[in-house]
Amino acid sequence: MCGSMEQSNKPNNKPNNKPTDKSGIYWILQDNQITPFITDFLELLQHRVNSFTKINFLIPSHNSDTLKAAKKLNPIPFKMSSKIKPNSLGGFKLKKSLIGDHEFSDGLSFWRTLLLDDLGSGNLFRAQIHHEIESDTQAIILQIPTPLGSSASEERVFYAWVYLAKQAGIPVLGYELLPLDTRWTLAPSLLDGVITTSYDSYRHLTENKTDMKKKIWLAPRYEGRFFSPGCPPFWRNGLGAAYQYQKESKIDFDKTIIYLPHNVAMTYEYKDLVSHLTSFSDQIHLMFCIGKDQIRGTHKHNEIIEIISKKNLKEVSYSFHDLNMPWEMTIADCVVACSSCYATSIAINNNIPTIIYDPMVRPHKKNAKQSFNNISGLLNSINEVISSHKERDEFAKIFFQITDRTYLK
Predict the structure, then answer these.
(1) Hey, which bits of 55-164 come out as E strands?
(2) Considering 216, 318, 382, 389, which has the largest number of Cβ atoms within 10 A of its Cβ?
(3) 3-class secondary structure for 220-231?
(4) d(CA 320, CA 371)
(5) What is the helix (H) or strand (E) element at residue 197, kind and residue range?
(6) Distance linking the first and last C-alpha atoms of the chain
(7) What angle do CA 251, 253, 259 make, to 5 degrees?
(8) pTM (two decimals)
(9) What phi and psi values does residue 47 have, to the nearest 5 degrees?
């Protein structure tokens, strides 16, 4: 059983490289891109990757509030200037010339949309970054703007840095804050890689219909959820838990991690459930949730589980976790239970895939919850979770791929 979590600097499955003296990675932050939870996560990530790179956080000098909010990240302010040419027929003609004769599939010329956008006015805007980029900079990271959620200022900084990175020949990556499963793919298409934080966005960008030829990553929930505008404190409580278990080698994160809210009142049911889960053998790790008050005679909760399921537990890796620390389920790929309970309620409310196997209850599905009364439904659902797990990469692993350029392969 594990107690309080300490912060680990060691990324999963990474060699112990010596700290680099390179310029490292530039992570650009702006107004509305920082919360206390995001700052806490970025600070931990900054320490975590320092064995092979360093993250420099850069913030526009005019974003004074953001500079204060990100103080613990030791941000570097950068200056930018804007050049704008007022409305003019000449400006409009220049726009039209740059766009050329390209048109939409239905025949509408691109340049004609200018008439809908600004009634033909000729505003030309250029944002210029005033910051010297070291030649050994390994990558530039930016939040991806979306038309329905980003300010004009954020978009201008984004495009200015993308342009600067392209000119310098430096890989530029974008990460998701607002959902990317939308019709707008221009901004993501300009990048060398995209880090998605939701499975829907990942699937949308990797499907052929979007024509995205870029490298697309999917972050695990225990990292990606920090970039959600609605991230609850539950995820902050679990910050660093995954890293600590990796450091202590108590859980193999190459495996799909299943959280089991075991209860001695359903000892037989959970014995049956475990017997079915062991068919996945070395593909999974079982996190048993146990309580100090769940005893039978002289046997503690963990002893009961190991005695009852002794034969099956020889086939899988497993660990025990205090039910009073429910935030540990943030590191799991899913919660699997024999009945709806306290733990499944927490999981569902935090959009953690929740699977319930109960032969006595009619099958149903709602939001993050699926309920099955047959083995085939249970096993198929677990297979889907395993497939999803294989598609996820931690930020540290992504950065390692960037620094040694293996992401290009």
Answers:
(1) 55-60, 76-85, 124-130, 137-143
(2) 382
(3) CHHHHHHHCCCC
(4) 24
(5) none
(6) 40
(7) 65
(8) 0.85
(9) -70, -35
